[in-house]
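#structure-requests
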Amino acid sequence: MISLFEASPTLFVSFVAVIGLLVGSFLNVVIHRLPKMMERDWAAQCAELRNEPAPEAVRYNLVVPRSACPSCGHLIGAIENIPVLSWLALRGKCRHCGTRISARYPVIELLTGLLSGYAAYRFGFGWAGLGALVFVWALVALAFIDLDTTFLPDAITLPLVWAGLLLNLRETFVPLPAAVIGAVAGYLCLWTVYWGFKLLTGKEGMGYGDFKLLAAIGAFVGWKLLPIVILLSSVVGAVVGVGLIVLARHARGTPIPFGPYLAAAGILALFWGQSLTDRWLAAL
């Protein structure tokens, strides 16, 4: 199979795109369940600190219980769980009770499939392709978790930092010194902004998860691409934030998650970072 993929890049890209659709379906589970698992852990830890009985432990993780309709409890069968196609065949409704199923599920599956296929096309078969897939899948999950909850779980961000550094031991994307400096600079950059804003206003302008996410991006793409990541994420975040306030969908005091913009900028940097940097410098 390895020889076949190496001989036929089109087959390899198509195969990875299909795998990406399946991973996207799993990421829907991660996005929904991981924050709930974190909340259960926090509740158990708080009970322990107060010397209270721990809440009744019901097995709940990324595998158990099976996915079900939140309205009627109908268990989702395998035929109803085919990425994108099942949603289209069911016309976006539960087969049992007719409750509408959010279009976000097939969107995440399709997005993950497309990004996975492009990563395979861009980096080919090898460590770079595998690393790009891990990076893309993690950032898709983090973007939507942050969008829903304003959390960026350490369970994803910290392993992503180490994955970037380990991959760059082989100079997969950048030399190891550039990756190490990228991770440190990524963290310290937003850490400095956080404390500067807090000292000036007495308020927290962002969460610690944003520091760790930018550190993970720096570990993959290196310190030289951090300026374009920060520029892209800041400009898009500012435009979207002002737009939401103008359209009265957000009050001025309502926090807007920064993680999705960092994640999008990180993916752009991995795929086209040097080209974007060259154009930006040429424009200057």
